[in-house]
Specification:
- By secondary structure, the chain is an alpha+beta fold.
- The protein folds into three domains: about 5-135, Winged helix-like DNA-binding domain superfamily/Winged helix DNA-binding domain (Arc Repressor Mutant, subunit A, Orthogonal Bundle); about 210-335, Rossmann fold (3-Layer(aba) Sandwich), CATH 3.40.50; about 425-665, Tetratricopeptide repeat domain (Serine Threonine Protein Phosphatase 5, Tetratricopeptide repeat, Alpha Horseshoe), CATH 1.25.40.10.
- Helix content is about 55%, strand content about 10%.
- The chain contains 27 helices and 16 strands.
- The strands form three sheets. Strands 9, 10, 11, 12, 13, 14, 15 and 16 form an eight-stranded mixed β-sheet that branches.
- Strand 6 (about 105-110) and strand 7 (about 115) form a beta hairpin.
- The radius of gyration is 30 Å and the shape is elongated.
- The two termini are about 60 Å apart.
């Protein structure tokens, strides 16, 4: 049975009866049965399949109350769903029909019972395809099973020959008469192909389309499948970002919307996104069902929607399927990613990979490392798993005292990615971040410049280059690169990193403006408190330091913040004890993060422990943080300026910083 005929039969929910009319008209809307489409004055309004079914049920029972239970049985005849799903459908339908909050021009809510379609409805008897715009060739399928997406194979040679019969003279005459029409059609198709090609070409020269993939929503929340809420979007973001003409917001910028009520227009403004991808999913026996919607944000219009069901053991194909569908909807060329190591070869390894990403994004680095190690053990040729493992080791080492051994493991993981996928630019950026953290910033800068030369719109590469310049004391260059990164992707201000170059140049208000308005992470609360500390807003500083420590007392930064809070409250002994404990842990674990260690020196100086401050300052410089331009203006270290040890340390930092400046400031291009 063809797609069109199968849709016609199934249009009346729960019935195989085919009506003799082609649709319904209400107001300036037309509901086309066979094509499963809603139009307004001839313009297609895309509806998700289940929302279309909801509208069909209401229109068929127009003027009468349709009980909620009946609607759910007809829309989801073989599936148990929560009543909230019906409410979501009704809400989406109201928006699609242009109803404002509190209006009932089309749909009336009958409290505690159901809904009634109240608009006047007329039957349509015209051909169902008359309304179709020229660009559309077929209706969206009601439920597309990807196992049935393969192009049917042609029959055998004998079968093809058996269907070929000699033409009669009349048939030949008909073909001859139709030849001019066929030629005209061929010309039209040729010009259409040329125009489409030109459109694609021009789309590459236009401003890239900005799209945000929001966290997926699990319709049946449980501990077994909740890990897909962020890990699948993250995987899709990685694949989709390789398409020409598309700029995809990073995963870090969407985390705040997880399990939150969504106001799409506000989200689009916050992320500077032209399109938003929403997707619900549910595990059903051996399958997973996804219902993605691509929303044109400014118009609040559904550009594309579909229901996709695939076997759970083909979970790895989700990112490719969605990438290709989105590319088609946006009319951009999907990436042909043939790089080695990009596709998983083991289902269980891919599930461990997704679980690892989920924990990495939740900053549960220990479990993330465990999951990702399982993934690479089962599938040692899967490059993305090695890359995320390197990120997990680096994050754990730099923030939670993971130390030298974990930096070494991260280095090995990144090296493995490059063995499998030598042209991977993304891993080069992460590797450069690791070099900066481990006293090899001079190696980081050329690597980042090479990545930017290959793709100047890599926001993350500009951001990490800003970080590297900051370490070496090139603060103006650091500010320029950081702002360039934020221009390319405004979502960067929502990431875990902070724009410390503003802090180090004394621009505290600007620094605060770069932080999330509603921080959720301990790391961010510490830095907000640190800015208030510089502004001498002591009460606000204490509040943020204490909150950061309550959220996560294992971070180097939050321990320093808590010590500063103790100092502000006059509890000098408690501050000293905490700082000494933190310093011991830094040394025992071999922590390499020179910038983090410098803040430990600042905290010692805040309680007048000058010798301890000098001791830790030396370690900071020796471990690769030699930001001389910041050191000499740092108000928190003013009282040390006349100390001979301090002056010797400044000479050491100045020497390396000048060499760094000669090497990179005067040579901006690779």
């Amino acid at each position: 049975m063809s797609i069109r005929s199968s849709l016609t039969v199934s249009t009346r929910i729960g019935s195989a009866e085919v009506p003799d009319y082609s649709g319904f008209q209400f107001g300036n809307y037309c509901l086309h049965i066979a094509d499963r489409a809603l139009t307004r004055e001839g313009r297609l309004i895309a509806l998700p399949p289940k929302v279309f079914d909801t509208l069909m049920v209401l229109v068929e029972r127009r003027g009468r109350v349709v009980e909620k239970e009946e609607m759910m049985q007809r829309i989801w005849p073989d599936t148990f769903v929560e009543e909230a799903n019906l409410s979501v459908n009704i809400s989406t339908l109201r928006k699609s029909l242009g109803e404002e909050v509190g209006e009932a021009r089309f749909i009336e809510t009958i409290p505690k019972r159901g809904y009634r379609f109240v608009a006047e409805v007329k039957l349509l008897y015209a051909e169902s395809t008359d309304w179709l715009p020229p660009r559309q060739t077929q209706a969206l399928p009601f439920l597309r099973d990807v196992t049935a997406l393969q192009t049917p194979a042609l029959g055998s040679q004998d079968e093809r020959e058996a269907t070929s019969t000699p033409l009669s003279w009349s048939d030949r005459l008909k073909r001859q008469k139709s030849l001019p029409l066929l030629l005209a059609l061929a010309l039209i198709l040729s010009f259409s192909a040329i125009a489409y090609k030109a459109q694609l070409q021009s789309s590459r020269t236009r401003r890239p389309i900005a799209i945000a993939v929001l966290p997926f929503q699990n319709l049946r929340p449980d501990g077994e499948t909740d890990f897909l809420k962020l890990s699948l979007p993250n995987s899709l973001i990685s694949r989709l970002s390789q398409a020409d003409g598309v700029k995809v917001r990073p995963t870090a910028s969407i985390v705040k919307y997880l399990d939150k009520e969504l106001d799409l227009k506000i989200i689009a403004e916050e992320l500077h996104a032209d399109y938003l991808l929403l997707c619900t999913y549910s595990r059903e026996a051996d399958d997973i069902k996804l219902s993605p919607q691509l929303i044109k944000a400014r118009e609040d219009e559904v550009l594309w929607a579909e229901e996709i069901r695939i076997p759970y053991n083909r979970l790895a194909s989700v990112e490719t399927i969605l990438r290709d569908r989105i590319s088609a909807a946006l009319k951009v060329t999907p990436p042909t990613d043939k790089r080695p190591g990009r596709d998983p070869q083991d289902l269980q390894a891919f599930e461990f990979y997704l679980r690892g990403i989920d924990r990495l994004l939740a900053e549960d680095f220990t479990i993330a490392i465990e999951m990702l190690n399982q993934a690479v053990a089962l599938d040692p040729g899967y490059a993305p798993a090695w890359m995320q493992l390197g990120r997990a080791y680096t994050a754990h080492a730099s923030t939670q005292f993971g130390g030298k051994s974990e930096y070494e493991k991260a280095t090995m993981a990144y090296d493995r990615v490059l063995q499998l996928d030598p042209d991977n630019l993304e891993v080069a950026v992460f590797q450069a971040n690791l070099f900066t953290d481990t006293n090899r910033v001079e190696l980081a800068v050329p690597l980042l410049r090479k990545a930017i030369a290959a793709d100047s719109e890599q926001a993350r590469a500009h951001w990490v280059l800003s970080y590297a310049y900051r370490y070496g004391g090139l603060l103006k260059e650091s500010l320029d690169e950081g702002e360039q990164a934020r221009r390319l992707d405004a979502g960067l201000k929502l990431t875990r990193a902070t724009f410390n170059a503003y802090l180090y140049t004394g621009q505290y208000e600007k620094f605060l403006a770069t932080l999330p308005r509603e921080p959720t992470q301990a790391f961010t609360f510490f830095y907000r408190g640190f800015a208030y500390y510089h502004l001498k807003e002591w009460e606000r500083a204490i509040q943020d330091f204490d909150h950061a420590y309550r959220l996560d007392s294992t971070l180097l930064q939050t321990q320093i913040g808590k010590a500063l809070s103790y100092a502000l409250e006059g509890r000098t002994q408690s501050a000293r004890a905490l700082l000494e404990e933190t310093e011991r842990t830094v040394e025992q674990q071999g922590l390499m993060d020179g910038e983090g260690i410098y803040k430990l020196a600042q905290a010692y100086e805040a309680i007048n422990e000058h010798q301890a401050a000098l001791r830790v300052l030396r370690r900071s410089i020796e471990r690769g943080f030699f930001c001389y331009a910041y050191f000499v203006r740092d108000p928190l270290m003013d009282h040390l300026h006349s100390d001979a040890q301090y002056q010797a340390l400044m000479a050491q930092a100045k020497s390396r910083s000048e060499i760094f400046q000669q090497q990179f400031a005067a040579n901006p291009e690779p």
